[in-house]
Structures are given as structure tokens and as C-alpha cells.
Amino acid sequence: MGILSESINENLVVFDIEAEDKKEVFQILSDKMKVCGIVKDTYLEGVLNREELYPTGLLLGDYNVAIPHTESSHVNKNAIAIAKLSKPVKFKYMADPKMDIEVNLIFMLAINDPKNQVPVLSLLMNILSNQDNVSVLANARNKEDFLKILKEKEVECI
């Protein structure tokens, strides 16, 4: 199993979220991780603060993605929570923080060892830099298909 596959479980994948904004999505995903003992009570605040300073919205074409995360001090164990939104929410664009972009997919990282953050982000970026991969993920009908596709793409990118 790869570094992504071992960090994702079906309980942390949420489909068709209808949220007003990114904060609401962060709340939903961090609550799921908190219930599972993955993150500390400070995690949500850490993600919100970091997102303010270092936006994570990626402009990828038809479907845009965000990869919010925070420092390892807010995390108990590695995990990735995923939200596939029924309607996009606004994020600041990573390359131009003055610009708002509409995001459809969110991969919220909880990494407890700082040395794992770069490899996880790098692999995820590798997968998501291919517009076909993003389209296939965005069009997955259910969590099982989504995770199967993500695992296949992870293997292709290793």
C-alpha cells in the first residue's frame, strides 16, 4: 500500500457536501477526524489559520482542488479526509492569493510527522496535476469508486 492509500479510509470520505463556504467543509471533515481520534481539538483552528496565510486552492481546469493542512502538532495520526462537494466553494488560489477560485474537491491532510508532509503533498500533486485524473475522481459515483480510482492513480504515479 502506498502513502496515500494507508492514510485514507472510507469513513473520512464525504460525498455531495452542500456547504456555504470552506470553513463549513473544514468543520465537517475535522469533526470526522476528531471522532476517529486522528486530530486534536486544536486542528480546525490550525487549518483555518494556515489557510489564511498560505492558501491551498489549485486551479486545475474543469474541477479545482484544495489541499488544506496544518502543523503536525495538531495531529495524533496520519489521515486524509476528502470532500466531494455538490456545489463548489470559494478558496484563495495558491499561486495568487488575491484571486478566488471555485473548488470542487478537498483533500484535508492530517500528518503527524513533518517529514511525511512533503512526500504526501508531492504524490497528491503528481496525481492531481493530470486533468484526466481530476475529472475521473470528480465524476466518481460513490466513495468506493473514488478510493479505487485514487489507489490506481497512486500506483501509476509511484
What attributes does this structure have?
single chain, about 160 residues, alpha/beta, five-stranded mixed sheet, 5 helices, 5 strands
Give your account of this protein's structure.
The protein is of the alpha/beta class and 158 residues long. Helix content is 40%, strand content 25%. A five-stranded mixed sheet has the order 1-4-5-3-2, covered by helices on one side. Strand 4 (79-93) and strand 5 (96-110) form a beta hairpin. It starts with 12 loop residues before the first strand and ends with a helix. 39% of the residues are buried.
| Largest sheet features | 5 strands, mixed
The helix/strand order is EHHEEEEHHH
What is the alpha-carbon Rg in Å? 14 Å
**What is the averaged pLDDT score?**
93
In one word, what is the shape? Answer: globular
Q: Please indicate the percent range of residues in DSSP E strands (runs of 2 or more).
A: 15-25%
Outline the fold blueprint:
Elements: E1 13-17, H1 22-35, H2 43-53, E2 57-58, E3 65-66, E4 79-93, E5 96-110, H3 114-128, H4 131-138, H5 143-157
Parallel strand pairs: 1-4, 3-5
Antiparallel strand pairs: 2-3, 4-5
Would you summarize the structure shown here?
With 158 residues, the chain is an alpha/beta fold.
